[in-house]
């Protein structure tokens, strides 16, 4: 099962219902169909979307796919999150580096707080950090700061990212006795500006008029 995660291809959660999978497929298939899309990679993307739908729309094939993904995760595969490129010079979780003045470092001063932290969660040795991004960063891709226990790392956010998508930083999690450190997952949350200037509003209006993307169809 090489290639991208099928849930990621369709842009749905692993717990998505069949109607959600079908709706996502119809939207993406319409967008990438070679007869309607002149982009050079449209046919390849259409094939990728179709392959993902054929598996996830069949309950038995989906169950087998999910079991295989869980086995890869246990074996140290990439089933739980997309691998990402961390910029050279970013602190590793095993380093003692990271400025004490780093505004993100305080997230991890208390590894297991008694009450839920608003910005991160701990699962075993893994850390899940919610990272806010702007709509244009999610659409176009960007270099974004991600807090880690050792300081702030710069991570390349892929173009076309969605809220809820996770970027995996291997080895940036918590250390424990008798084993390697866990991983850190940057969970993307797209945040719309609370207010817009007239120019920004016009740009969003132009995007809405030009776009054929509609998740509700």
Number of strands: 7
Overall shape: flat
Q: Just name the CATH architecture of the largest domain.
A: Sandwich
What is the CATH C-level name of the largest domain?
Mainly Beta
Considering DSSP H and I runs of 4 or more, what fraction of the residues is helical? 25-40%
Spatial strand arrangement across the major sheet: 1-6-7-3-2
Radius of gyration from the CA trace? 19 Å
* Structural class assignment: alpha/beta
Number of helices: 6
**What name does CATH use for the topology of the largest domain?**
HSP40/DNAj peptide-binding domain
CATH superfamily of the largest domain: Urease metallochaperone UreE, N-terminal domain
Average pLDDT figure: 76
The parts where pLDDT drops under 50 for at least 5 residues are 74-83, 87-107, 109-114
Beta-strand share of residues: 15-25%
Largest sheet: 5 strands, mixed
Determine the N-to-C terminus distance: 29 Å
Protein name: DnaJ-like protein
Organism: Pseudonocardia cypriaca
GO molecular function: unfolded protein binding
Domain J: 5-69
């Amino acid at each position: 099962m090489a290639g991208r995660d099928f849930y990621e291809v369709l842009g749905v959660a692993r717990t998505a219902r069949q109607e959600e999978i079908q709706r996502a497929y119809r939207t993406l298939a319409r967008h990438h169909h070679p007869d309607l899309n002149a982009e050079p990679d449209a046919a390849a993307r259409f094939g990728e979307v179709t392959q993902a739908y054929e598996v996830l729309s069949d309950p038995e094939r989906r169950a087998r796919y999910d079991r295989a993904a869980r086995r890869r995760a246990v074996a140290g595969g990439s089933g739980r999150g997309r691998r990402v490129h961390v910029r050279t010079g970013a602190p590793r979780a095993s380093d003692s580096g990271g400025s004490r003045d780093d505004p993100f470092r305080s997230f991890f001063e208390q590894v297991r707080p008694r009450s839920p932290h608003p910005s991160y969660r701990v699962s075993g040795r893994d850390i899940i950090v919610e990272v806010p991004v702007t709509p244009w960063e999610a659409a176009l891709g960007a270099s974004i700061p991600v807090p880690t226990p050792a300081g702030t790392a710069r991570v390349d956010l892929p173009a076309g990212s969605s809220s809820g998508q996770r970027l995996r930083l291997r080895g940036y999690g918590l250390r424990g006795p008798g084993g390697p450190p866990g991983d850190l997952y940057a969970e993307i949350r797209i945040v719309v500006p609370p207010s817009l200037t007239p120019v920004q509003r016009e740009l969003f209006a132009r995007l809405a008029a030009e776009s054929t993307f509609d998740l509700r169809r």
